[in-house]
Specification:
The protein is an alpha/beta fold. Helix content is 44%, strand content 11%.
Length: 602
């Protein structure tokens, strides 16, 4: 039976909708993927509240005069310490001694005064919380772009280096600039298909070289089992679930800083999930697929291949969020015979799921009410713009994702980099973590949209409203002891947001606050200089401790937090036994496998 043809009105409505979506998508692409409507609303909210606040305007006017006077005094007569030396500069952009001389000290102090004034002017009472966050963020971005350290005519260090090198530093900087400009032009949407450049550190040769085998594969993951290096191993294997927005070998970089190699060397039977890099055909894969195919089936495969009834599970970033969901669902499943039957029926657990001996979450949010800088990109207009773009491609591109993360820390990843390359003429020193960062991954359209809506917009996991197969997931159902790690300078998963796991669970939680950022704070191998962490445990029924109070009282330890994790896992492991045999019939290929090798230029 043929479908009736749409009415003229319906055809007109569909054509109008397509026109609107095409225009919105083009505007978002021209605006670095951001919704111009969202940004305009935030700006209007700020401007209208400030216009209707004459008292606030007077305060800002007085503040401008006071800051201008302070800047002039600091330029003419710098503040000295007890040894009559200028106080050390806190801003890394101006630490070179050439910034202490006229006229650059005046430029520096004037900029710092303007920076302080605009940051204060961005704060206006009455704005919505999200709009205030957007205005704060983009004010900082604009100020960082206008810093005198970014421009050759006003950068004291660049001019001194040009004199010392006879202008060669500027010549080299110009060459670096033209090379980067050519790459940017080749990446434009209307350019020819971009060429996929080889990675500086080759996967399977320079990084991801810990010996192992792929022992399980489905449409979404490969499961790698690593070869033991100790005569005996702990009876509970360790499953690692990295984030699907990154290649798994962030935890298996060079041999010297591989967490996988470290854990294998400590006597653990280590498995890790290697996520498939999706294409347009995967557009309909959703979060439920990632939870079942990516986490649950990996757990079942670990139990099947080791015959271990209990396992340790570790999740990093979004992988940790997924792991927390599955751990809560397992806890729900274990509540009584009736609860087991209901959970098995509704969630569709794979058979023979193991018990969790422990759950470790690394820089993983479970409460998204305060997501840090990521919240700037999340509102209904932004998500609608993303959906329209993903509807066209079927996925969220790795390049767009990398650009978002770069934008979050533009001062270090954009402006400081440009200063080194273009003004000082310095070449970038590539290393394994930088090479990994260039190995981009995609996310399926449906999964990414569901993740943003359910987690960031609705905070469904923290409020108990997220459902797996019709059953609500509550983190309070996690019964396994937990080790939770946050990092001090995390722009993706702020540690105070990660710390909220204490409010959501009623089990043992050992919390570690490690020095560093989202990636470098996690990749913190023993022996690295200037590394430290704080650690403290909270037992069941102990009550709530505010994060500021925790930070003030938790002891500081020098060195790598990996060693504390090792001790924590060992305390919850059984007596070492002979390593489990690896069945040759279950081996599909050598590590690092096939999925990690899939790359796309976008």
């Amino acid at each position: 039976m043929e479908k009736p043809s749409p009415s003229p009105y319906e055809r007109q409505r569909q054509a109008a909708k397509a026109l609107d979506e095409n225009l919105h998508a083009r505007m978002a692409r021209a605006n670095m993927g951001l919704s111009p409507v969202s940004m305009a609303l935030a700006t209007a909210d700020w401007a209208m509240h400030l216009a209707l606040s004459p008292g606030r305007q007077m305060v800002l006017g007085q503040r401008a005069l006071a800051l201008a006077q302070q800047a002039w005094q600091a330029a003419v007569r710098p503040v000295l310490d007890d040894q009559d030396e200028p106080l050390p500069e806190k801003d890394a952009r101006f630490r070179d001694e050439n910034w202490q001389h006229w006229p650059f000290n005046a430029l520096k102090e004037g900029f710092k005064a303007s920076d302080a004034w605009w940051r204060e002017a961005a704060q206006v009472e009455g704005m919505t919380r999200h709009h205030q966050h957007v205005v704060d963020f983009f004010t900082r971005q604009a100020l960082d772009a206008l810093s005198p350290s970014n421009w050759p005519a006003t950068n004291a260090e660049a001019q001194q280096r040009a004199r010392e090198t006879g202008g060669q530093s500027l010549a080299q900087g110009y060459q670096n600039f033209t090379e980067d400009l050519k790459k940017a032009q080749s990446a434009r949407p209307d350019a020819a298909p971009p060429v996929l450049e080889p990675l500086t550190f080759e996967v399977g040769k320079d990084v991801a070289v810990t010996p192992g085998k792929v022992v399980f594969r489905n449409h979404l993951i490969e499961l790698i089992q690593y070869a033991p290096t100790t005569a005996k191993v702990y009876p509970e294997p360790l499953l690692i679930v990295p984030s699907c927005i990154m290649k798994y070998y962030i935890l298996d970089l060079s041999p010297a800083n591989s967490m996988v190699r470290y854990l294998v060397g400590q006597g653990y039977t280590v498995f890790i999930v290697s996520w498939r890099n999706p294409d347009a055909s995967d557009r309909d894969l959703g979060m439920q697929d990632y939870l079942r195919l990516g986490v649950m089936e990996a757990m079942a495969a670990v139990k099947e291949r080791t015959k271990a009834p209990r396992i340790h599970a570790l999740g990093y970033c979004l992988g940790g969020t997924f792991l927390a969901m599955v751990a809560a669902a397992l806890g729900h499943k274990s509540r009584g015979a009736k609860g087991k039957a209901a959970a098995r029926e509704h969630t569709g657990f794979p058979p023979h799921m193991p018990e969790l001996a422990s759950v470790t979450l690394l820089a993983a949010q479970t409460d998204f009410s305060e997501p840090g800088e990521m919240g700037v990109f999340i509102d209904d207009d932004q998500i609608q713009a993303l959906r329209q773009e993903m509807e066209r491609t079927g996925y969220f591109s790795g390049k767009a994702m990398a650009g978002s993360f770069q934008f979050l820390n533009a001062r270090d990843l954009v402006w400081s980099r440009n200063t080194r390359r273009y003004l000082l003429g310095q070449d970038e020193v590539d290393f394994d973590l930088m090479s990994w960062n260039a190995d981009l991954t995609r996310l399926p359209a449906r999964m990414h949209s569901e993740y943003l809506s359910s987690m960031f917009l609705n905070n469904a996991l923290a409020t108990g409203h997220y459902r797996m197969g019709g059953v609500g997931v509550a983190l309070m159902d996690i019964h396994a002891p937990m080790l939770v790690v946050g990092t001090t300078r995390d722009h993706v998963s702020p540690w105070r947001s990660v710390y909220k796991i204490h409010l959501q669970t009623d089990t043992h939680v050992t919390f570690i606050l490690a020095a560093g950022g989202h990636n470098a704070g996690i990749v913190s191998e023993p022996g690295r200089a200037r590394r430290s962490y704080q650690i403290a445990a909270t037992e069941c029924g102990q009550g709530w401790t505010e994060p500021e109070e925790w930070e003030a009282n938790a002891p500081v330890r020098e060195g790598s937090w990996w060693e504390a994790m090792d001790g924590w896992l060992k305390a919850r492991s059984g007596k070492p036994v002979a390593p489990p045999a690896m069945d040759p019939a279950q081996v599909l290929c050598d590590a690092p496998g096939e999925y990690v090798m899939v790359r796309y230029a976008d």
